[in-house]
């Protein structure tokens, strides 16, 4: 029976990828409300169990796929739920072959293609993956299960990226975080080397942000960052990506048809920053951003392209009349 279990060599994600993803989840565990929002936003069925198989969480997609509400599932053990998990080739899955038991005992990600019985009585073929969630001492505290119908879109790199984006999202601006953007830049550089298709990296910060915090308070600063993040989300094309890099800094990946597109993008971002403002107690507080944009080069890696965009941004901060600096300014 054990050969039916897939450990590490799954087609959906490597163990390292899962550890990377759920390492991000552990980073936000201290904010329980935000963590539950992340889980509810996942494009997978998701449930969390204690090692004794008692379910403590059941997300919206799990309810949609299987039919049971959280109220019908939470607090019960798997054996009490009549899910009748069975092998694809036939036969009920015995306890020793259960992916949850195997994940808990081995401390490693376990994945299995299986049938799960819906509330309506029919069986749904799913890919079910169990991820041990450890505490700071390395002990398995909970098991997180992700599952999706195998008849729907395959669990490929794009789907994994969607989950990772949600996992690293910044709660203030609702933009992805730095770690997500770093992985995206790595992917774009690899694609550029294969295809020659150019892209640009934008580095920007809200200029004189500390003056806003000191003059109007941190509430005003947070509102200004939230508004700027909102405008970035609405500004970008479907192929562009933005993140909150940290503090008052933001980074974006901009897809280009040619390297000459960079100047038009720079002007659009300048207009975006100049139009960002909030009203606090009847007073308008405006946003002024310094922006650096650079096109990827053949010898670039992630660190070099980000460092160059960062350097351009600092040059923009030092010039009173120019708020955007691009590669063209160094020709």
From TrEMBL:
Domain spans labelled PAS: 31-76
Superkingdom, natural source: Bacteria
Listed SMART domains: GGDEF, PAS
Residues of the GGDEF domain: 197-327
Annotated transmembrane regions: none
Annotated InterPro entries: Biofilm_reg_signaling, GGDEF_dom, Nucleotide_cyclase, PAS, PAS-assoc_C, PAS-like_dom_sf, Rev_trsase/Diguanyl_cyclase
Gene3D superfamilies: 3.30.70.270, PAS domain
Domain PAC: 110-162
PANTHER family on file: BIOFILM ARCHITECTURE MAINTENANCE PROTEIN MBAA, DIGUANYLATE CYCLASE DGCP
Protein name: PAS domain S-box-containing protein/diguanylate cyclase (GGDEF) domain-containing protein
Taxonomic source organism: Eubacterium pyruvativorans
